[in-house]
Amino acid sequence: MKLRDDKKAGQIFRSVLTLVKEKGLAGITMGEIAKEAGMATGTLYIYFKNKEELINNLFFECRKEALENYFVNYDESLPFKKGFSIVWHNILQFRIENFEEVVLMDQCYHSPFVNDCTVKLTKEMKKPLYKLIERGKKENFFKDVDDMTLLTFMIGSIHEGVKNAHYNRKPLNKAAIDAMFKMCWDGMKR
């Protein structure tokens, strides 16, 4: 029996990200993934028993990496707006720098490939984001509306800004980023 090589698993993940960006999640096969990764299809099955297992593993890893990056340099002792700004900018930066992962995660939310267990784990990982939103409401910075609505507004505005910049091949400059943050803050604040 062959032993698993973490470098090959990373190679497989990168291949999936490339293919998903080009063809979409539903449009790729295990054979295409193996070819893109430069390995035999049988080798791919040593690492993942099927496409669903592969996609669930990759989705989980992408969500984990994203959420870990969102709170870099965040400290709850900072004034709320400063802390919120750090998280907001981290989310924006992660999505700019990891666009292929963002495409995959977005498609996974709308696909049958991601199982209930993975969905449950990723919801658990989002707790710090909800805690941030709750803090904003508790400290009377944010509107008194459902947490999910506020989080959707925050992430949605970042997501669309990054997506439009990427597809229009027009990188976001400091003025655009500052304007996006101000509009998000103004849209969420009381």
UniProtKB/TrEMBL annotation:
It comes from the Bacteria. Gene3D superfamilies: Tetracycline Repressor, domain 2. Keywords: DNA-binding. InterPro entries: Homeodomain-like_sf, HTH-type_Tx_Regulator, HTH_TetR, Tet_transcr_reg_TetR-rel_C_sf, TetR-like_HI_0893_C. SUPFAM superfamilies: Homeodomain-like, Tetracyclin repressor-like, C-terminal domain. Residues 29-48 bind DNA. Residues 6-66 form the HTH tetR-type domain. PANTHER family: ACREF/ENVCD OPERON REPRESSOR-RELATED, ACREF_ENVCD OPERON REPRESSOR-RELATED. This is TetR/AcrR family transcriptional regulator. It comes from Sediminibacterium roseum.
